[in-house]
Amino acid sequence: MQAQILKHLISETPRVLVVDGSRLVRKLIADVLKRQLPQVQVLSCASIAEAQAVLEQGDVDLVTTSLALPDGDGLALARLVRQQAGRRYVPVIVVSGDAQEHLEQRRFSDDVTDYFDKALGHEALAAFITGYVQPQTIAGARVLYIEDSRVVAEATKRMLERQQLKVLHVLTAEEAFALLTADSLGTSAERIDLVLTDVTLKGELNGRDVVERVRVDFGYSKRELPVLVMTGDTNAYNQATLLQAGANDLVIKPIEERLLITKVLFQLRLSRLAVPAAIL
Description:
The structure is a single chain. The chain is an alpha/beta fold. It folds into two domains: 15-133, Rossmann fold, CATH 3.40.50; 142-271, Rossmann fold (3-Layer(aba) Sandwich). It is 41% helix and 18% strand. It has ten helices and twelve strands. Helix 1 (23-36) packs across helix 5 (122-133) and helix 2 runs parallel beside helix 3 (74-85). The chain is elongated and about 55 Å long.
């Protein structure tokens, strides 16, 4: 079965707006984009004012921005992009050295699609951008999926299996721990590559417990075993506690297939990269 293609950028010659006060950073990001998309048109801007002038000239397909800009911040730029795009889907990616701190403290607005931490390195940045240009599947990667609703689980499994991922679905955290124990002892036939869990589960344990057990009891780092948590809780504090407990990222409900797949495939690719040197 061929993986379903999920294109974020429909155009074969996409216009990508790169906004950063540093000329070096803009060049590095542009080089990454051009390596992934030879036909890309990179629109490089140093400020919100320059970006606004570009946006007034026509649509863009993807935006990357620094958090700190000479005349404002990346969140203000994200709002500007949303106003210009209307209902059209335009990913807005924050590329920053302190993005993780902002994420954990839930400082990002709904106008930001995703974030990238510069400390992950050049190759991770390339993998990240590729995920928004054209998610590349990792056929056969094994996802341990914890969800107590069979209806929700079936729909989400189909999304993942369309990307040729192997999905091992369990209903409770306890079942998941049994499988993780076998995996850590080397008695499982196949290793688990990523854990995807709902935050609310039947029984005494929930998604946060899953994250904490994976990080503390099993001792897996974020690179060794990525954990994504699905949540419909909009409370910023509750979301922050999941990330601080060791979740790699959150998937906000209701689930949007394109973003779920992007996040899953990015974490799988990142886990396969060598430990990076910090960029910039």
